[in-house]
Design a protein that fits this description.
alpha+beta; single chain; 8 strands; Porin
Length: 178
């Protein structure tokens, strides 16, 4: 199978995440002592539900973020997904790297890289088929934030109809951090 080259938008987002992570690390080291670190860590995460033509998807993603300043946060999370497409079922689990940036207090931009292990089983022409593989996703999102809740939509720039567990590249989300 021929490997696809990364697109310009994918390289741009990876560069943004790398620069953001580097900036946050340097800022955290220069501004905070180790005791202040935990005062800036927030726990929470998100969940998602997707419905389509004979499809269902439920996702749970507990996360921890480090609030670098009032506008910028970085973090990591775990992911679990259960999906059912007609007679097919799949379970996916993995991890993600997160970057959130509030343009103004109410508007949040996000970039999330997610790597999932996909285990799927489906029936095709009377034969039971099992497929296990790794699948990356790179979500760019826009959300409305009110206190510790963000509601919005995200788009997977690496979306592959044949490999992704999501029924569409666009996905609504709700995030809560405490």
């Amino acid at each position: 199978m021929k490997r696809k080259r990364p697109t310009f938008s994918t390289l741009l987002v990876f560069s943004f995440l790398l620069i953001s992570f580097t900036h946050a690390t340097i800022s955290a080291q220069s501004q905070n002592t180790s005791s202040d670190f935990w005062n800036n860590v927030r726990f929470g995460g998100g969940f998602g539900l997707g419905f389509g033509n004979n499809t269902f998807n439920a996702a749970l993603s507990p996360n921890a973020i480090y609030q670098v300043n009032d506008q910028f946060a970085i973090g990591a999370g775990l992911n679990f997904n259960y999906s059912k497409f007609r007679d097919s079922k799949l379970i996916a689990y993995g991890a993600s790297a997160l970057t959130y940036y509030n343009i103004i207090p109410a508007i949040q931009l996000s970039a999330e890289f997610e790597q999932l292990r996909i285990n799927r089983k489906f029936e095709f022409d009377g034969a039971n088929i099992e497929d296990n593989y790794w699948n990356p996703a790179l979500f760019l999102g826009l959300g409305y934030t009110s206190r510790n809740i963000t509601v919005g939509v995200r788009y997977d720039v690496l979306y592959s109809e044949g490999k992704s567990i999501y029924s569409d590249a666009f996905m609504p989300f709700v995030r809560v951090y405490f």
